[in-house]
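Chapter review: from sequence to fold.
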Amino acid sequence: MTERRTPDPQATRQAIADRLRQLTRGRPGTQLADLGRQFAYDRLLSRVFVAGRHEWVLKGATAILARSGGQARHTLDVDLYRREGDLIEAEAALHAAAARDLGDAFRFALHPSRRLTQDREALRIPVVAYLGATEFASFHVDLVTGILMTGTPDEMPPLVPIDLPGIVRTTYEVYPVADHVADKVCAMLELHPRSSGPPVASTRYRDLADLAVLARATTVGAENLQVALASEASRRGLALPRAFPKPIAAGWRAGYVRVVARAPWPPEKDLDTAFATVRTFLDPVLRGAAAGWWNPETLSWSPLADVRRTSR
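The token string follows.
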């Protein structure tokens, strides 16, 4: 039996930096620090999905990064859904996965969690990634359980497309497109409580940007999206409108521009064009007129035969 050799941390760090610099040349606007952090996400996610292939689902902005080939906005967190058990069991499973040795000279220190209460309960766990004895990146993982998915997760490649000798890579199970869209839509439609005064309208600029990216990067069936929207609206106690409402709260224009400024995607860099793209995507579904599949290349609903069903 051949003994697996752990690569030299210093040589590995240099090889990673060289490949990431090369990658930034083909991605205008991409920051080297962001790619480095995404590589750290990959090292942790490889441990998670090697240890429990069908136990976990990647959610949130990290899932959109995977679907867009790394072209969407960067995020400082990794959202993970564990299909079985409660949050305590999910946290224990994450610790066990993070401790797995993949022979890549990386290790992960997980710090005490704190509970988040937003639209559903979650745990936030600060994480520090080390390459050898030196810190490589820091971020946090948000864990959720108890989600009802109406679709089947998709298989996606790692976030950063670089190969290194001895580095174990694996694909990820990613939140279904229809459920992801429904979650974003309903979060924007929902009124959000505050400590004093009446509830306020959404200021989730990132959700609009994410919906524009999903419209550009993925395909989804009209019927699947209708089912997911109805399910999520019911869970939140919302009545779905027949047209996606334009955000009117103060700060939306500047907030949206700030969110998308550094990201290669979406190409919609102002509120009006983003809203137009998202409304083209969603309005036919909301009024029950959409049929077939969404075509991200033509930004239209088309018969299945006309859609090249590829997800990046």
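Two observations follow directly from the output. The chain has a mean pLDDT of 91. The CA atoms of residues 267 and 273 lie 9 Å apart.
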